[in-house]
Design a protein that fits this description.
Four Helix Bundle (Hemerythrin (Met), subunit A), single chain, disordered N terminus, mainly alpha, 68% helix, 229 residues, elongated, 2 domains
Length: 229
């Protein structure tokens, strides 16, 4: 029997907000590995988890399929796309090429007020890690990193990184929670902000390099153990 997905939040509002919020919640579940690669999930099953009708869930699943995160399976539902080790390496490489120099440059250009505004989000990441709440961790982590990159003023760059993050699921998060190591990775977000506020470009570059290395370790997952911390 196909494993059931984790509980998802009950949503309210208009149909449009249903679709967008369902897509966001499913995307976070995919990134965190809560919806497992290779498994098939049906719109009715997920709709029951949301406590809403099937239509907005099916529409959200179709949106995710267009993003390459799911593959439609006729008369069954949607299969979570499997990502190979080579693809994970490629995604990590592209993210490093984009995020490390972009974030390092913010040490000289970012508004300190805007940087301080990200500190509560960084603390959310740490809190979620301590609680073992993977969906909250991924959602806060996404808001932090995309919010940080947005300070560079390049919207297409942010969208490229958003897509890369979605395609490369963090399969190893559950393992890191069990081993008590996820909090250490979460703390790096606060360390990064401190380096940015200190205008220390070298330190920013070092933290980002280390952090992306940990992320690749998380992506390795239980079948391909990595060094994620």
């Amino acid at each position: 029997m196909t494993p059931q997905p984790p509980p998802l939040p009950v949503l309210g509002g208009t149909k449009a907000s249903y679709r967008e919020r369902v897509a966001d919640a499913l995307r976070a579940a995919l990134i965190a590995g809560e919806l497992r690669a290779g498994e098939v999930y049906s719109a009715p099953t997920l709709a029951a988890r949301f406590g809403i009708s099937v239509t907005p869930v099916r529409e959200a699943l179709l949106d995710l399929a267009k993003e390459g995160l799911l593959d439609p399976v006729p008369n069954k539902g949607f299969r979570v796309t499997v990502v190979s080790e080579r693809q994970l390496d490629e995604y990590t490489h592209v993210r490093a090429l984009i995020e490390i120099p972009t974030t390092a440059a913010l040490a000289a250009t970012a508004d300190p007020v805007a940087l301080r505004a990200l500190r509560p989000v960084a603390r959310e990441i740490v809190t979620a890690a301590a609680a073992g709440d993977l969906i909250a961790y991924v959602e806060a982590d996404t808001r932090f990193h995309l919010g940080l990159l947005a300070l560079a003023g390049n919207a297409p760059l942010v969208e490229v990184v958003r897509g890369l993050r979605a395609k490369a699921r963090l399969y190893g998060l559950t393992k890191l929670v069990a081993e008590g190591r996820l909090e250490a990775s979460a703390e790096e977000h606060l360390e990064l902000l401190d380096a940015l506020l200190a205008r220390d470009e070298s330190a920013v570059r070092a933290v980002m390099t280390r952090h992306l290395g940990h992320v690749r370790g998380m992506w390795a997952g239980p079948a391909h153990p990595g060094e994620g911390t």
